């Protein structure tokens, strides 16, 4: 099923477009990797998909009905979010619990089920023993892991990760890719991840979206595996 | 001291502002909007001057203009994302320039203006106390009811937006509340020092608190202690309350830094 569809999308900063007439369908239930060199507009593509940026022209449609009556929940871990908020005066467990707020609304209390979800999310990224630490006391990789745990605690149908492995050691990175693969294969979730290390992640991915620069043609979006894509103004 | 009605009013006003100001300050600091309180106090001063010139109630006109200023800053913040301090500088200078020009139009304003600039215990009128009570009540309801979306918004606006928080609406309501709080606090601490009451307790709390809830509670506790001791000292030694409260809070901050350094040094010695 199509989760997000981009048709002839153009977007840029200043006067020059960085996304130029890209059409792309994202299917649910897949582990999708977005890759490309620096400046290839990977994060921009992600933000357009999520509706955080409005395209200059073209359409972006997020199929919210796909999630059913409970509503679509998207867990998002932006690039370097943990480092930016290093001084945030919060305990690790407070931050991860905040992932449950969307489901709880303004007043509903935390139940034992929610506390279990928070515990499981922290255990899955090997950070449960750090639950009472202040965020600022953690290393860059650990901060990144608790932000992923926060997104997992949302119990999202779609998980969007922008270079989540930044600052993590090899073991933690492989653990993260395995965990995401597990979420997709066993729980039918969709994971979209911006990554630089394609050689490391490709064994776990279903689909790869590569943003590549072609001579005299600007940036192009190439999709391998099951995703369909069309390029150029005529698409 | 508390036998005087004006001191009772000052303590009530100070107590209410001592709760809502530091609470707001924690969020302002974490959203990197520390200078917003200072800016809005200058804008509010222009509102007070405008009210006097137009023969309106200065307290109410100052209040209204501060709220409008908050909304304008929020709108400009969205337009100048890369230079978020720029709208603050623009509005601050505009507010002060307007206040100075309006003041010159009315010669007998300067005396009452000094009470707005530096705060005055006797400056708290019944109307102002009522305004402060309403602002404190609205602020407390706002921060208690919306504590969950506010936490997410403060941590990161993008993840909050995707997580279902109405970021635009919440940010605008926050800006309105900031304008309201600043305008309400002005008679007690004065235009020039209103941000001290909002920022200093929060900066102490953010240094020593282990968690978010603890930071909020420490900020409120510090704010209240600073306000009550500042008002008392100001009564007995006849100093402006704004400056006295700010100096006491500054001493608290220096003490917090010193104690924290001592604890760290002791911990390092234990491990070496």
TrEMBL record, chain A:
PROSITE patterns according to UniProt: ABC_TRANSPORTER_1, ABC_TRANSPORTER_2
Sequence intervals crossing the membrane: none
Domain ABC transporter stretches: 4-235
Keyword ATP-binding: yes
Lineage top rank: taxon: Bacteria
UniProt GO molecular function: ATP binding; ATP hydrolysis activity
Keywords of the record: ATP-binding, Nucleotide-binding, Transport
Protein name, as recorded: Metal ABC transporter ATP-binding protein
Organism: Paenibacillus agri
């Amino acid at each position: 099923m199509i989760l997000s569809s981009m048709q002839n999308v153009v977007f840029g900063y200043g006067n020059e477009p960085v996304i130029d007439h890209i059409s792309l369908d994202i299917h649910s239930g897949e582990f999708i990797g977005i890759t490309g060199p620096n400046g290839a507009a990977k994060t921009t593509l992600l933000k357009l998909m999520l509706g955080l940026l409005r395209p200059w022209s073209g359409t972006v449609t997020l199929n919210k009905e796909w999630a059913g009556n409970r509503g679509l929940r998207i867990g998002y871990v932006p690039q370097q979010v943990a480092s930016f908020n290093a001084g945030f005066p919060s305990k690790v467990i407070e931050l991860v619990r905040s992932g449950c707020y969307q489901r709880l609304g303004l007043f509903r209390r935390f139940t034992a089920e929610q506390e279990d979800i928070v515990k499981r999310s922290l255990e899955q990224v090997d950070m449960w023993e750090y639950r009472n630490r202040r965020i600022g006391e953690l290393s860059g990789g650990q901060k990144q892991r608790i932000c992923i745990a926060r997104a997992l605690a949302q119990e999202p149908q779609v998980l969007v990760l922008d270079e989540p492995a930044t600052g993590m050691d090899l073991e933690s990175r492989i653990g993260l890719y395995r965990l995401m693969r597990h979420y997709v294969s066993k729980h039918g979730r969709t994971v979209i991840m911006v990554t630089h290390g394609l050689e490391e992640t490709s064994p776990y991915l279903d689909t790869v979206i590569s943003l590549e620069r072609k001579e005299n043609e600007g940036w192009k979006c190439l999709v391998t595996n099951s995703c369909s894509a069309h390029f150029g103004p005529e698409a | 001291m508390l036998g005087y009605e004006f001191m009772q009013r000052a303590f009530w006003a100070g107590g209410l502002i001592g709760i809502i100001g530091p609470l707001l300050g924690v969020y302002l600091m974490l959203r990197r909007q520390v200078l917003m309180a200072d800016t809005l106090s200058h804008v509010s001063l222009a509102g007070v001057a405008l009210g006097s010139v137009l023969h309106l109630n200065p307290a109410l006109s100052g209040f209204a203009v501060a709220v409008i200023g908050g909304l304008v800053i929020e709108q400009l913040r969205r337009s100048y994302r890369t230079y978020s301090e720029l709208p603050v500088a623009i509005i601050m200078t505009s507010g002060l320039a307007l206040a100075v020009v309006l003041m010159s139009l009315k010669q007998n304003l300067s005396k009452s203006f000094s009470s707005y600039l530096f705060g005055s215990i006797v400056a708290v009128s019944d109307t102002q106390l009522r305004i402060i009570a309403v602002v404190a009540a609205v602020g407390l309801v706002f921060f208690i009811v919306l504590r969950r979306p506010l936490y997410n918004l403060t941590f990161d606006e993008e993840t909050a937006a995707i997580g279902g928080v109405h970021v635009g609406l919440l940010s605008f309501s926050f800006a309105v509340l900031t304008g309201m709080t600043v305008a309400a606090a002005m008679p007690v601490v004065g235009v020039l020092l209103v941000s001290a009451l909002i920022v200093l307790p929060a900066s102490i709390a953010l240094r020593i608190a282990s968690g978010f809830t603890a930071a909020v509670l420490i900020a409120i506790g510090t704010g209240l202690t600073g306000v009550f001791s500042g008002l008392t000292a100001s009564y007995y030694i006849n100093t402006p309350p704004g400056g006295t409260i700010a100096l006491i809070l500054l001493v608290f901050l220096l003490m917090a830094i010193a104690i924290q350094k001592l604890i760290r040094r002791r911990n390092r010695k234990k491990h070496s």
